[in-house]
Amino acid sequence: MAQNNVNDIQDHARLFHQDEYQELFKAKKEFEGGHSSEEVAKIADWTKSWEYREKNFAREALTVNPAKACQPLGAILAAVGFEATLPFVHGSQGCVAYFRSHFTRHFKEPFSAVSSSMTEDAAVFGGQLNMIEGLATSYNLYKPKMIAVCTTCMAEVIGDDLQAFISNAKAANSVPQTFPVPYAHTPSFVGSHITGYDNMIKGILSNLTAGKKQETTNGKINFIPGFETYIGNLREIKRYADLMDVNYTLLADNSEYLDSPNTGEYQMYPGGTKLEDAADSINAEATIAFQSYATTKTREYIETEWSQKTYVSRPVGIRGTDEFLMKLSALTGKPIPKELEEERGRAVDALTDSQAWLHGKRIALYGDPDLVIGLVQFLLEVGAEPIHIVVSNSNANFEGELRALLDSSPFGQNATIWGGKDLWHLRSLLFTEPVDLLIGNSYGKYLWRDTKTPLVRIGYPIFDRHHLHRYSTYGYQGAINLLNWIVNTLLDELDRNTIIPSKTDISYDLIR
Ligand code: SF4
């Protein structure tokens, strides 16, 4: 067997090309008795056809690579935005390992979450004992200020009752009676990570704000980010609010947790919205959510239980950012400062510089509903044409809102919204009705490989490129970032397509 020589360590991209590994792969293939290379190539070719597309779109009982994750993943992202809060997942350990590794691969940061480690006996008799022991261990070992509980499929299938279990755990002295243990049922066989986020934010806010309503408001504005994975967006929102001298509470701020400085000392709970500020959010003037479909239940709760006005604003692109700033100004009476007007002017200038390369470009995109609406808003603004829009966690309200947005622009007329479809559907779409550019998360790299459609990585998760999550997609600077990623991918592709000397390089230009 080939060995890595300690004096010449080879990474896997080179190691497995050595003769011994190649022979091993060949022998494995022969042993498995698979189809011939010709047959594989023939079928692969057929999967590019309209005939295959029709069969692919007729499938009902199978999902292949959906662009969504499960509810508890969103719930624990919400939880870590609060001061010293430990996410506690009631269910099996494997699920939690998956959530933690998912976030760590995207953010390149440690992510702490515990589970009640339910196994076969708990699946039969219920997980109450796991909850009682798990809460006590978490409280004593990790010393959090709050433990936020959600569930996996297993706990939901057997019908574990979180409210009763947590009350019983408190009665058994797992944690003090007054210690906050908000919870959210997050069954993964319905909804997606954005539903889980919504459920958990609602659970935490209803727990922390109970009995805190005052006669007068605290003069603040609440911001709810939604399932936000761009740290730069949270920082941009805070910067805008500070520039406008707006008093705000971010519900919740996980920007430090997901991007903490390397000081050489491990901190388990960096940053986070203070629990007392979150408790006082019930007394705010109003709430602005930056995502609609990740905050539906929370906004409904705030409107009905707190009697507080809520608004949705997506500060993406010029128009989206203008609308957000004007809404903030209208709610607070604070003017929009000159500094932001200048930033706006720079963003408009940048869009104008690149517009010729984007006008009429055919785009396919996929992702969460709010991300997709923001991106479509931006694409229409620069004259690009969305063609295929795949949203696995779609719903009728979202499709109605997106259709109205597309109908409002001449560039939106050729778009089809593929609600509930997955990335294997999108593969068929890209083969049969090709586009110039694909926008989505890292899973799109397989579509890029198969269809050769250039991919711009925007969304969650992004595992295979570094640091993109540190940037903003919101605000005027965010518009420049989106523009940069999109136009330069198109220009890279143009270079690749004009690179052959004496053949295509007549257009291999220095100046674009
Ligand atoms: S879908 Fe269910 S079983 Fe799978 S990781 Fe999510 S919670 Fe666990």
From TrEMBL:
<dbReference type="InterPro" id="IPR050152">
    <property type="entry name" value="ChlB/BchB/BchZ"/>
</dbReference>
<dbReference type="InterPro" id="IPR000318">
    <property type="entry name" value="Nase_comp1_CS"/>
</dbReference>
<comment type="similarity">
    <text>Belongs to the NifD/NifK/NifE/NifN family.</text>
</comment>
<keyword id="KW-0479">Metal-binding</keyword>
<keyword id="KW-0067">ATP-binding</keyword>
<protein>
    <recommendedName>
        <fullName>Nitrogenase molybdenum-iron protein beta chain</fullName>
        <ecNumber>1.18.6.1</ecNumber>
    </recommendedName>
</protein>
<comment type="function">
    <text>This molybdenum-iron protein is part of the nitrogenase complex that catalyzes the key enzymatic reactions in nitrogen fixation.</text>
</comment>
<keyword id="KW-0535">Nitrogen fixation</keyword>
<dbReference type="Pfam" id="PF11844">
    <property type="entry name" value="DUF3364"/>
</dbReference>
<keyword id="KW-0408">Iron</keyword>
<dbReference type="GO" id="GO:0016163">
    <property type="term" value="F:nitrogenase activity"/>
</dbReference>
<dbReference type="InterPro" id="IPR005976">
    <property type="entry name" value="Nase_Mo-Fe_CF_bsu"/>
</dbReference>
<keyword id="KW-0547">Nucleotide-binding</keyword>
<dbReference type="InterPro" id="IPR024564">
    <property type="entry name" value="Nase_Mo-Fe_CF_bsu_N"/>
</dbReference>
<dbReference type="Pfam" id="PF00148">
    <property type="entry name" value="Oxidored_nitro"/>
</dbReference>
<comment type="subunit">
    <text>Tetramer of two alpha and two beta chains. Forms complex with the iron protein (nitrogenase component 2).</text>
</comment>
<keyword id="KW-0411">Iron-sulfur</keyword>
<keyword id="KW-0560">Oxidoreductase</keyword>
<dbReference type="InterPro" id="IPR000510">
    <property type="entry name" value="Nase/OxRdtase_comp1"/>
</dbReference>
<feature type="domain" description="Nitrogenase/oxidoreductase component 1">
    <location>
        <begin position="70"/>
        <end position="490"/>
    </location>
</feature>
<feature type="domain" description="Nitrogenase molybdenum-iron protein beta chain N-terminal">
    <location>
        <begin position="4"/>
        <end position="56"/>
    </location>
</feature>
